[in-house]
Design goal:
This protein is an alpha+beta fold. The protein contains seven helices and six strands.
Length: about 220
Amino acid sequence: MNYDRSLYTVRTWKSPILLVWLLNPFMAITELLQGRRLAKVTLIGKGEGGTLKGLEYVPCPHCGTIHSGLEWSRQNHTQSTNWFGLYCKDCDKIIPCLYCVVSYVLLGLTFPIWYWFKDKWKAQWLEKQRIRFAKSLNLELQNFTWWKVGLKFGAWMYVVMVLLFPLIEGESITIHKLTTGAIFWIIGGLVFGLWMKFIAVRRKATAPAGVSLPGGE
């Protein structure tokens, strides 16, 4: 697709932000377990022609619709379970997404297991997306408590990295590992929350209050 570069900055896998995602091994957890995905192409509004500066838009390569990135967000409870990609409610097709390097490796290693069931799972998943996105979505910017978001993320990573993975690998879980892991993921979670706050504040500063973005109901 061709995009009006006077309205948008086009972000692909070559973007430094997306490269960090692709090379970060922890992103495999959010992709494969939680189903949080990033579109292969994201547009960043320049604040002209009806777009809101700094906000993300996701184009559908099938029908050409340019969606607000808030369609797949925490406030709509749609940020997760997007395992097969981002569902486009305008054409009932799937917007292609990226996988981080570790996800590709894990999917390749487990290919003989999931390949035989993928079509059935995809059909079931697609039907659930039709129901989920048939509801009205809130496409107005929302405030959030950054430290709560950060601690929830840190708690999730703590359970997976400190408790789940060692159990799978047969490693012993010691008090030292539990303590250091807790400290590490509390700090890591708060850093993540601050980063999310930075993004939200930047968006809020460039978006008029109460404005709905293109692509909503």
